[in-house]
Amino acid sequence: MKDSQGNLVLGRTRWRRFAALVIPATIAVTGLMAGVANGAVSVTFHVSGQTAKISADKLDGKGFAQYGGVLMEKNGTPHVVAMSAIKSAELENLCQSVTTPIPGLGNFTLYIRAGRSEGAPVTASNLLIGMDKLGGDATFTNIDIGVDASELTKGGPNHGDAGLFGQEADRAVITDLKQIARSTQAGTFALTGLSLSIAQDSTGCFPNSAIN
Question: Which residues form the domain of 146?
Answer without folding.
Answer: 15-205
